[in-house]
Amino acid sequence: MQLQSPSADRGAGLRETARRAAQLSRPLAPGEKIDLDHADVTEITRLPRVGPALAQRIVAWRAQHGAFGSLERLDSVPGIGPKLLDAIRPFVTQP
C-alpha cells in the first residue's frame, strides 16, 4: 500500500478545485441548453444569473418534489421569480 504525502493530497485537491472552477466558468455554447430535470449543480450554475446557492436549491427541490416537467414549475423554488424565468428560458430545454 502506497501512502500519499499531505502535499500530494493538497495537490490533488487543488487540481479538482481547478477542474470544477473551469466547468463553472465555461459559458453555454450557442444553442446549448440545460435540462433542469437532470442537470447537476455545476451545469445549472452555467445559466445566467444562477449561482451555486440557487443551483443547489434547484437540485434539492427537484430531489424532494420530482422533475419540474415545465419551466413554469421552477418558480416553486425559493428565489426564482418571473424575471429569472425570462432570463433563463432561452437556455433550458422544455419537455
Describe it:
It is globular, with a radius of gyration of 17 Å. The chain has helices spanning 6-25, 41-44, 52-65, 82-88. It is built from four helices and no strands. It is mainly alpha-helical and 95 residues long.
The parts where pLDDT drops under 50 for at least 5 residues are: none
Strand content: under 5%
What pattern of helices and strands is seen along the backbone?
HHHH
User: How many DSSP E strands?
Assistant: 0
Arithmetic mean of pLDDT: 84
The percentage helix is 40-55%
Large-scale geometry: globular
Structural category:
mainly alpha
What is the first-to-last residue Cα distance?
50 Å
Rg over C-alpha atoms, rounded to the nearest angstrom: 17 Å
Tally of separate helices = 4
Q: Describe the biggest sheet?
A: none
In short:
This protein has four helices and no strands. It is mainly alpha-helical.
What's the structural blueprint in terms of helices and strands?
Blueprint: H1 6-25, H2 41-44, H3 52-65, H4 82-88
Q: What descriptors fit this protein?
A:
4 helices, 95 residues, 0% strand, globular, mainly alpha
